[in-house]
Design goal:
Blueprint (H helix, E strand, L loop, with lengths): L6 H28 L13 E4 L2 E4 H4 L15 H6 L1
Antiparallel strand pairs: 1-2
Length: 83
């Protein structure tokens, strides 16, 4: 049973594809590194929540800044507080 798909050809193809993938990744990283990063004029303030008159950052509270929800079990007010 002579086939073009043997172990040796599989290893050669896999190695060639791996080297090609690594070289493309390196080129993409170098291209991204060459682009200048825009500097903002003033830093943005971090979102805060107020609990009994105390400002606490939402990062410390554990709020999800992407969709505004938090794991809070039965505490109904937590999601509204962190939005």
């Amino acid at each position: 049973m002579d086939s073009i798909y043997n172990r040796r050809s599989f290893l050669k193809t896999s190695a060639a594809i791996s080297v090609l993938g690594l070289s493309l990744e390196e080129q993409a990283l170098l291209a991204a590194q060459e682009q200048p990063v825009p500097q903002s004029s003033e830093p943005e303030s971090m979102p805060y929540a107020v609990i009994q008159g105390v400002r606490i950052s939402r990062l410390i509270c554990g709020g999800n800044l992407l969709n505004g929800f938090a794991h809070s079990r039965d505490l109904l007010y937590v999601s509204d507080l962190l939005k």
